Amino acid sequence: MVMFIDWQFGRIVNKTKGLGLWDQTVTMFFTDHGEYLGDYGLIEKRPSGVSDSLVHEPIIIGGACLTKGVVYEEMGEMVDLVPTVLLLGTIAETYAQCGVSLVDAIHAAARGKVLPHKNYNFIEVGGAAARTVAVSLLHQSQPAAP
What we know:
Residues 2-87 form the Sulfatase N-terminal domain. It contains four helices and four strands. The protein has helices spanning 2-18, 52-55, 81-88, 103-110, and strands at 26-30, 59-63, 120-127, 132-139.
């Protein structure tokens, strides 16, 4: 899977470079959830939960106007991706967004400053078999799961 994604991304890089667009291209890698991968003796996200290994997903954003090597470790949510993409693409928002762009926070991190983004995240968990959905509220200062 990783090799396939690497190959496909390489195709995108080569094409954008060939078109002279690479220096103005922003790329994003993200996921909608984590996996246990052995944490708690489990290997997949079932049963659903709100442990750190499921809800703390990395996102990689790079290119164009962004400083290389910047790591921003504050909390964000998936709903923040749309406003972030719109702002990076200089596209006007035509309707209200539930998320908040990460662009200002990323630029602040490039200057060595921490611009807190959110104090809380909403996490929805549940399964089709259970026919129930639980909503949790995670706080930024919550300790990581063992």
